[in-house]
Automatic annotation (TrEMBL):
Originating species: Dimorphilus gyrociliatus
Molecular function GO terms recorded: metal ion binding; signaling receptor activity
Transmembrane segments: 172-191, 203-227, 239-258, 270-288, 300-319, 331-351, 371-387
Membrane association type: Multi-pass membrane protein
Pfam family, one: HlyIII
Gene Ontology BP annotations: adiponectin-activated signaling pathway
UniProt keyword annotations, A-Z: Membrane, Metal-binding, Transmembrane, Transmembrane helix, Zinc
Biased composition regions of type Acidic residues, renumbered to the chain: 50-61
Protein's recorded name: DgyrCDS2401
Residues at which Zn(2+) binds: H223, H369, H373
Length: 412
């Protein structure tokens, strides 16, 4: 395994053996308490490492042994196998001939190069890689050609990667900002005085807020730590799918609650239906194969079906209350717009448009997954607006309506 600490120590030893005055300074520099670990640097074992771009390959081939090859060669180690910790095979304090001076100069040059190498690896940590250089478990979308993070093996390195540009940067930030925005909306809604918004309304709206926040939080976490390792990626991928199901379930509750405010039986039945379907989606998401690339259309289809199950109560409302009330009272227009955004986003995700049409052109920005994320955030805000309208209308009227002898609706 490549070890930055070994390389630094070896450079120190060489310097010491040559009587270089910088030894003390280097000793301070490599104090174990101030040296970042491999984990922090995001480095990974050679056997598991993916090959990077040319620069990375050059670095790793130079640096994956304790003693860089060029260093051994230049100090004249005969077979290249003796440890760099051994005393040098010449006496620098004896009379030095020209060759000896050359050797000393070359050795110092080699040490400087090794120091430069350590400094560069230390500063950089990792570089983005080509899709073909990713391990199989990270090869999700082959239309994104370059700009991928390699496996980082450290949560700290994964979270630091939020601030670097790669294929997941847009996915991370779209849902991180969406999550923060919904936390803001939730805090402002729940902190309103109870005279203005009663606790029942706060409880009903909270199911939607919790669904939206968890969905975007899980998604943000998944895209951030996806490259940690196969096991971590799989776990957070499942959490991501659970988040979508939770958002869908949470979105249905206030809509059904206010749309069927005065009719308990359909309200309870539809809530039970969405709860069962949502739970089924979560159970299916736990299945390992569900996350594999070939199941992408099945995944999209499952969640579209979960969302479209809302067509049944919507049709029920239109038939019993009429299209006018559906649009003006139940904010059906906003709900249809929300459904179109979700379905549109899911289709873009399933067909991987636009990167399928121009592979390699949308590696960093405007890839299908980012568009899908933006559509999810937009749909959640449209839904919030829609259910606010339904709730306002319901609470303005105060009580349930019923028909009089002439069939006119009156406030009960
Ligand atoms: Zn996502």
């Amino acid at each position: 395994m490549f070890c930055i600490q070994d390389t630094i120590n070896n450079v120190m030893k060489i310097r010491f053996n040559l009587g270089n005055s910088k030894t003390e300074a280097m000793a301070n520099c490599v104090d174990s308490t101030s040296t970042p670990s491999e984990e922090e640097l995001g480095l990974f074992s050679q056997s598991e490492a993916v090959e990077g771009d040319d620069e990375r390959e050059e670095d790793s081939s130079d640096s994956n042994v304790s003693t860089p090859k060029f260093l051994r060669k230049r100090v004249g180690f005969s077979d290249g196998t003796s440890s760099i910790l051994d005393p040098p095979p010449f006496d620098v304090s004896d009379d030095e001939d020209e060759n000896g001076l050359d050797l000393l100069a070359n050795t110092k040059k080699a040490v400087n190069q090794a120091e430069e190498l350590v400094r560069r690896v230390w500063q950089r940590g990792w570089q983005v890689v080509h899709h073909s250089h990713l391990p199989k478990w990270l090869q999700d979308n082959n239309f994104l050609v370059g700009g991928h993070r390699p496996p980082l093996r450290s949560f700290l390195a994964c979270f630091k990667s939020i601030f670097r540009i790669h294929t997941e940067t847009g996915n991370i930030w779209t849902h991180l900002l969406g999550c923060v925005a919904f936390i803001g909306v939730t805090v402002s809604f729940l902190s309103r005085p109870s005279l203005e918004i009663q606790w029942q309304e706060k409880a009903v709206f909270s199911t939607f807020f919790i669904g939206a926040i968890l969905c975007m939080l899980f998604s943000f976490l998944f895209h951030t730590v996806y490259c940690h390792s196969e096991a971590v990626g799989k776990f957070f991928n499942k959490l991501d799918y659970c988040g979508i199901a939770l958002l869908t379930m949470g979105s249905f509750v206030p809509w059904l609650y206010y749309s069927f405010y005065c009719t308990t039986a359909p309200k309870i039945s539809y809530m039970a239906l969405i709860f069962i379907l949502g739970t089924a989606c979560i159970v299916v998401s736990m299945w390992d194969k569900f996350a594999e690339p070939q199941f992408r259309p099945i995944r999209a289809g499952t969640f579209i079906a979960l969302g479209l199950s809302g067509v049944i109560p919507a049709m029920h409302y239109v038939i019993t209350e009429g299209i006018d009330r559906a649009i003006n009272v139940a904010a059906m227009g906003w709900l249809v717009l929300m459904a179109l955004l979700y379905i549109g986003g899911a289709l873009i995700y399933a067909f991987r448009i636009p990167e399928r049409l121009w592979p390699g052109k949308f590696d960093i920005w405007f890839q299908s997954h980012q568009i899908f994320h933006v559509f999810v955030v937009a749909a959640a805000f449209v839904h919030y607006h829609g259910i606010s309208q339904i709730a306002n209308h319901r609470l303005t009227f105060g009580n349930c309506l019923e028909a009089d002898q002439n069939g006119n609706l009156i406030v009960k």
